[in-house]
Amino acid sequence: MKTSTRFFSWLVVCFMAVSIACLSLTGYRVKAAEFKTIEPGVLTVATSTGFPPFEYVGDDGKPDGFDVAFIKAIGEKLGLQVKVEDMEFNALVASVGNKTDVAIAGMTVTDERKLAVDFSDSYYDAVQYVLVRKGSNIRCMDDLHGATLAAQIGTTGNLLADDIVKENPQTVLKTYDRFPEAVNDLKAERVDAIILDKTPAQTFEGIYSGEIEAIPGDDFDFEVEEYAIALPKGSEQLGSAINKAIAELKSDGTYDRIINEYINADSGEKSNGIVDQFVSAFITSNRWTMYLNGLCLTIQIAFFAALVGIVVGTLLALMKIAKNRKGKRTILSFISGIYIDIVRGTPLVLQLLIMWFIVMKNSKDGVLVAVVAFGLNSAAYVAEIIRAGILAVDNGQMEAGRSMGFTRAQTMCHIILPQAVKNALPPLCNEFISLLKETAIVGYVALSDLTRVANQISSATYQPFVPLIGAAVIYFVVIKILTLLLGVLERRLRKGDIR
User: Fold this and answer.
1) What gap in Å lies between CA 16 and CA 23, rounded to an integer?
2) For residue 42, which phi and psi values (nearest 5 degrees)?
3) Is the Cβ–Cβ distance between 381 and 423 less than 8 Å?
């Protein structure tokens, strides 16, 4: 009897222990399910590579670094798959809440950023350092006055440099999208100093040992800063879950392991030889596939944008030349003219950002946004090309068509437009070539085209020469082939083989 009672007691205890464990796990999952993510079951994260060791492009061509590993560990705690989107740093805050769930990129908590996003608990303390060339006389704040400074756009270093410029107007500030470009300008003596965070500064110092040195921020009276994860405004549940995950990662040793793996690890040595740089930029980890994928994306965006531009541009051209029976301009002509003036009078990069963050803010497809933005921009130029082609057709063609019984619209479609397209074909091909090169700014919408791939590999290898020259050669070869094809087309047009 006693044996059975004891067995039954142990059975009850085990059952209660299992129940409590299940309830604990269930409770955590319920809490994790209380917040919504842009994509169910996925935590979409924005970052900006080029900030080693926190963010850089790994050997597999994907974002890597301390922040990436840390947010993946957080995602595992939350039971969510983590998807990392690489974009320009100054686009990170704007992406949070509509394009991405959170942003992590060595981002310092500031009052200005708090107006746009909320922040998690701090996960790393940092202080700004100053990078200078070996032998530089810059050693304190007074030495920065009147110097040429460099900083990454939108960073705390950028804000500090702005303050220095305000105090001394003779000080010059140059801003960069990525720190590796700034470091190369420092080595080339285009800038005198770079203001950036301690760990990346020490990383660059280790890589370019003997060429540059990192000076502690204490010598410049820089204050300690806190890194945190940017969250959408009012996302208390998500913030609470992430804060709990951060605390658990610090207590169970995962945080220290990631610190040792990425921040305390040896930064390694750079390769100086051209052959070594070529191997590192193209052969190592099959990086040539990154160039190929970037080229395919570039051509894809340019091709579909060109189709959108031709269709919309032709409609705009017909609208602009439209006249009423009295021979006066119509409201359609006025609207078309306004559209063309606005598009041609504003930078393409601003149009892309407006399309990404405002007009199509709910779209998660960066390729679609890029195609629409580039297509609508190209339409303004195509409209003028088509309009010029139409005006080049003799006025007698319209009269001849009308005398044959065609309406004005029928004459335009069947007689005028075919001749106009023949006249406009060469400049339309040139517009496509220009469009192909203009796609180099799609990095702002988290796309890795050929130019951005070159920048990513440059950031990963710390050598800009071979990656950038390689991308330039690829662009040149592709555009040269298109130019030769255009030459063949023009010769056939002159011979009358194409009607």
Assistant:
1) 10
2) -130, 135
3) no
Q: Is 82 helix (H, G, I), strand (E, B) or coil?
A: strand
Q: Which of 488, 496, 314 is nearest to 413 (CA)?
A: 314
User: 230-231 and 81-86 as β-strands: parallel, antiparallel, unpaired?
Assistant: unpaired
- Count of CB atoms situated within 10 Å of the CB of 265: 12
Residue type at 487?
G
Residues 6+ apart with CB under 8 A from 490: 426
Structural tokens at position 294: 């970037």
Say if CB 161 and CB 151 are below 8 A apart.
yes
pLDDT digits (tens, 9 = 90+) for 6-41: 444 444 444 444 444 443 434 434 344 467 888 899
CB within 8 A of 243, min separation 6: which ones? 120, 121
End-to-end CA distance of the chain: 104
Give the other-Cβ count within 10 Å of 244's Cβ.
17
**At CA 130, angle to CA 127 and CA 132, rounded to 5?**
160
Whose CA is closest to 300, among 439, 430, 99, 429? 439
Question: What b/e readout covers 33-70, taking b as 16+ CB neighbours within 10 angstroms?
Answer: eebebbeeeebbbbbbbbbbbbbbbeeebebbbbbbbb
More confidently predicted of 420 and 79: 79
Q: How many CA atoms lie within 13 A of 367 on its CB side?
A: 12
- The whole-angstrom distance between residue 419's C-alpha and the CA centroid of its chain comes to 42
Check whether 297 has a pLDDT greater than 90.
Answer: yes
Q: Please state whether the peptide bond connecting residue 53 to the residue before it is cis, i.e. omega within 30 degrees of 0.
A: yes
What is the DSSP pairing of strand 224-227 with strand 193-197?
Answer: unpaired
Contact in structure between 156 and 128 (CB atoms under 8 Å): yes
For 6, 317, 380, 420, 425, the CA distances from 385, given in Å and listed in that order, are 93, 8, 9, 9, 9
Taking alpha carbons only, the member of 363, 286, 323, 378 closest to residue 100 is 363
Contact 75, 43 (CB under 8 A): yes
Distance of alpha carbon 307 from alpha carbon 298, whole angstroms? 14
Considering the entire predicted model, what is its pTM? 0.73
